[in-house]
DNA sequence: TAGATTGTTAATCGATTAACAATC
DNA sequence: TAGATTGTTAATCGATTAACAATC
């Protein structure tokens, strides 16, 4: 069954493979790939078989063919327009991040309630929040990033979905409710950091306890 | 067994509980909490029992007591010093993010190779990369955030660990190798977005296919 | 008390890994 | 051919959920 975790691994395989390809590898074994992404070779083969990707018995996988297949699975064969709501710290960082463009992800606009942030002349324009629904409909954008304060996040989510957004990457630390058929992925940086802190402290205690 | 996922849920419970507390809730049921974080009530109770947190049969959990316990588990009872390596887009966003301070996370310094980014006069100073090891040792920092380009990430990781860092939040899209006892959490924003794109595209195809 | 909720055990579900036949 | 690697099935492992006795 295809779930979030499997697709995340596909992304990792892809990143690693591109690196291998740049290093001149023409073929790659499940073993090598597994090592690069921190998985097992069985898992690599299992994942591939799930998507009908096959290699050569004894010969491994042909790097370029494999990359091609992953590209297509991950929608890299065409440009994916994405918009960002909330031009604060995170929103700005993502807006400026040059790496997306190479990866077929195009940030098409930013939106913010604060009129002083609006700037239509930028290559990626920052527009007033109330222009969002029309923009989404006209440009047929289906993916959005929410980087607003948590109190505003659900309302933004509702507006996005009503206008036609089908997938959301959410940085606000709340569980967004959206209708069936809308994909929501959450990134909670504070929790991630807390997680690290927890394990560092627990390990430190364990060592002391010995 | 305590794993990353359980601790991530503790963080979510905590966030939700603080919200409940602000709304004046004196007690909360496993049911209510589950709903707020998108889990099941059985899971909430299971998680709590794992950490020896108990409530009152019939009476649920006392909000303030519960928050207190989670705070202590998650290391919120003291300030956690954290440093950031790589003052690019993400690094800058995290450096500026005001929310950490309220959460007991103090960004104590940023580090970058680029001398034009160095600025010792800021409240959170940005220092040259080569001062990192001494800084870590002198200030006894144990948590670091890596926000450098992927080609530099492993070297930065090695330097951090050698100087005494025990936990890393890594934004570079590679698997970092670190000795046993060092905690590494990865945040791969590109993969997260790719994930959303994948499912949006697959769902769209499914609907068309019908 | 009767009803509701916890805490925990057992059952289920899902994901990962081991193993090995097929085969290049 | 002999050796190595894939592709897949079965076994294992771990996490989630269901269920229910205890009890407030």
Task: Explain what you see.
By secondary structure, chain A is α/β, with parallel strands linked by helices. Chain A folds into two domains: 4-73, Winged helix-like DNA-binding domain superfamily/Winged helix DNA-binding domain (Arc Repressor Mutant, subunit A), CATH 1.10.10; 80-191, 3-Layer(aba) Sandwich (Rossmann fold), CATH 3.40.50.720. Chain A contains nine helices and eight strands. Chain A has helices at residues 4-22, 30-37, 41-50, 63-73, 89-96, 99-102, 132-139, 150-163, 189-209, and strands at 27-28, 61-62, 80-85, 105-112, 126-128, 143-146, 167-170, 183-186. In chain A, the strands form two sheets. A six-stranded parallel sheet of chain A has the order 5-4-3-6-7-8, with helices on both faces. In chain A, strands 1-2 form a two-stranded antiparallel sheet. In chain A, α8 links the parallel β6 (143-146) and β7. The longest helix of chain A is centred in the last third of the chain and has 21 residues, at 189-209. The mean pLDDT of chain A is 95. Chain A binds a DNA duplex (24 and 24 nucleotides) through residues 1, 3, 5-6, 29-31, 39-43, 45-46, 48-49, 54-61.
Task: Describe the structure in brief.
2 copies of one chain form a homodimer. By secondary structure, chain A is of the alpha/beta class.
Secondary-structure map with pairings?
The structure is a homodimer of 210-residue chains.
Chain A: H1 4-22, E1 27-28, H2 30-37, H3 41-50, E2 61-62, H4 63-73, E3 80-85, H5 89-96, H6 99-102, E4 105-112, E5 126-128, H7 132-139, E6 143-146, H8 150-163, E7 167-170, E8 183-186, H9 189-209
Parallel strand pairs in A: 3-4, 3-6, 4-5, 6-7, 7-8
Antiparallel strand pairs in A: 1-2
Chain A binds a DNA duplex (24 and 24 nucleotides) through residues 1, 3, 5-6, 29-31, 39-43, 45-46, 48-49, 54-61.
